[in-house]
Structures are given as structure tokens and as C-alpha cells.
Automatic annotation (TrEMBL):
Species this protein is from: mine drainage metagenome
Protein name: Uncharacterized protein
Length: 160
């Protein structure tokens, strides 16, 4: 009989706390609602400028020359929408930006980019870059406007 007392005490105290669920950590219900509204209603910031109308973006893209396109990474949220980092800029999958890319989508761990001007769709993994002039995909990341540290890193990657 004495052996059952610890188990009985454990069950009594455990059942008192069993109904508390963790749910989403670190956010109150009001904060979660606010975050969900921001995700659904706001247009993303790219650099320091707010994304403008589609006509303005199309005009800017038409004047942009074809450059090397690099994918640094991507994140997909539970709702299916995600963010892809192209040429060090965050892009939402449904919105074009001034990176030379018309459309972005992620499937099976690959980022599919429709390049502006070339009309070609390229499939890259995170960390790869594509040069539209040569048509080659490079395994090392090309990071435009990154500075000297990136050049040194790329040199180290290219050495055998």
C-alpha cells in the first residue's frame, strides 16, 4: 500500500496541470492576431522602399540588365507562403521586385525563378547562382555588392 502513495500523489498533481496547453510560445492571442493580419495585408519592404504598383515594377524591370541571380535561402511558413532571398533581398513568392526576377516559387527544396528579359525559368538550390549570359549554375554563392569578405570567401571556395 505504501508503494502506491507516490504514484497517487503524482497523478493528483499531474491532472491539475494536464489541461494547460503550450500552444504558440512567446505570443499572446492578441499578438498572434496582429501578426497574422500583418502577414495577410501588408506588402513587403524591399530595401528602404515600399513595393509599388505592378506597372511601376514592370517599368523598372524592363530597364534592368540581366545580371547573375543568386539564391541565399528560403523560408516557407505553415500557411504555404514563404520568403526567398534573391541577391540578398527578401522576396515574397507572389511579388516581383527589382532583382531581375518576374516570378518566384519553391517546390521540393528548389527555388524556381522566372528571369525578367530572358523569359527563362531557372531552378536553383539555396547557395547556388545562375549567370544568364553563360547559362551556367555555380555551386558557390555569388553575392553582388557584398564587399571584400565575400570575394575572399569565394576565392577560398574555388581553390582545390
Amino acid at each position: 500500500m505504501i508503494r502506491w502513495w507516490p504514484a497517487l500523489i503524482f497523478l493528483v498533481f499531474h491532472s491539475a496541470y494536464a489541461e494547460d496547453r503550450l500552444g504558440r510560445l512567446f505570443f499572446t492571442p492578441a499578438e498572434r492576431i496582429s501578426l497574422d493580419r500583418l502577414r495577410q495585408n501588408s506588402r513587403p519592404q524591399i530595401g528602404n522602399a515600399q513595393v509599388g504598383s505592378a506597372a511601376t515594377e514592370a517599368g523598372e524591370l524592363a530597364s534592368a540588365p540581366l545580371t547573375v541571380v543568386s539564391v541565399q535561402g528560403y523560408v516557407t511558413r505553415g500557411g504555404g507562403k514563404g520568403t526567398v532571398w534573391v541577391n540578398r533581398r527578401p522576396l515574397h513568392e507572389t511579388l516581383p521586385a527589382d532583382t531581375g526576377v518576374d516570378r518566384v516559387r519553391v517546390t521540393d527544396g528548389r527555388v524556381h525563378l522566372k528571369l525578367h528579359g530572358a523569359g527563362k525559368e531557372v531552378s536553383l538550390k539555396a547557395g547556388q547562382s545562375y549567370d544568364p549570359v553563360t547559362g551556367k549554375v555555380a555551386e558557390h554563392p555569388y553575392i553582388p555588392e557584398a564587399g571584400e569578405w565575400a570575394a575572399a570567401e569565394l576565392e577560398a571556395l574555388e581553390r582545390p
